[in-house]
Structures are given as C-alpha cells and as structure tokens.
Amino acid sequence: KEPDILSASPTSLRFSADETGEQMVTVTTNVSSWTYSGGDSWLDIYKKQDDNLYVKAQNYTNTESSRTSTITISAGDATPVTINITQTAKEINSLSVNPTSLSFEGNEIGDKTVAITTNSPSWDATTDASWLTLSKQDKTLKVTVDKENTGSSDRSANVKITAGNAPEVTLKVTQTAAIYLTINPKSLQYEADETGEKTVTVSTNASSWSATTT
Fold it and tell me: pLDDT by residue (tens digit) across 3-31?
C-alpha cells in the first residue's frame, strides 16, 4: 500500500490585532479527503476549497498580550500537520504636537504650523471655530487665520487632534483683539473768555497712547 502523505504550507499564520482579511493554507495529500480540527472562537475557519484552508481572525482589542491557537490537519494514516496561529496585541498609539498652543495678533492674517508625532497610520484635526482653517500635510498641521479680530476682546479656539486609540490632544489657538481707540467726548468747546481744563476719556487696548495738537 502506498503510504499516505500530507503537508501544508504555510504552517504558521500571523494576524495583526485589527486585520480583517483571510489567510490561506495550501494542503497537499494523496488521500482522497482531509479534515481539520482545533481553532478557537476568535477564529473563522473555512472548509477546504480546492485543497485550501481559509482562516480569518476576529478583531482583537487587548493591548497587553498576543493570543495563539492551533489547527490540526489530518488525512488518512499520514502524520497530522499542526498550523500555529498568532494574533498580536492591539498597538497602543502615541500622539504629541509641537507647539501645544498658537497665538496670533489681532490684525495678523496668515498661517502657522504644528508638528504631529504619532505611530498611528492616520490622524485627524477638527475645530468648531469659524475663524480658523485647518490643513493636513503629512505630519504637519497648518492653522490659518484669515480674518482680523475686530472685536474688543481676545478670542480663542480649541483644535482637537486624534490618532488611532491615542488620547486626544487639544491645541489652543488664541488671537488678541485688534487695537482699538475711542474718545469721549469727541469735541470740546470753550467760551471766548473761558479758561481752564476739560477732560476727554481715552479707551484703548494699546499699551500706550499719545496726543498731539496743531
């Protein structure tokens, strides 16, 4: 009697934590039929098709340790073949930005950039401030202020930056108020024989002011 033979390739499978695609094991044997056994609940194993066995791992959220399983393929009297399966732990993403805050002058129009450092394959940035425009460029975030701050007080906004499962980082953006100047009253009148002083109240957010006369 011709001895039963059995082989499989590959004999080990490795899945990442969030890998959703299937992997294939090719079975070679001279026996008319073969079977498989084993596996765990986190594996989806598809019955042979054209001498192939298909294995799919479910999403793995554990961040501390990998998990393993085995599948045994048998055919007649041939020595069974063991397929070792490993799924790695979910990677803990890191995220940092530099600088962590941006400041614009009240009449300043333009952009400033922030360096994004992360091991996540993708990241995003959002803000609800209408006076800011965000632009992603590889590992750089460009923050643009396209309008002067014509208000009488400073304004600020938060830019939320996310990357994978890393903790969210908030970038603080501020714009000082544009320089304003008001006086009250706007005119003074003296009688022909009137001497003495009158007062004008000056309101400004400038650090200093001056007055000249002709």
Answer: 999 999 999 999 999 888 899 999 999 99
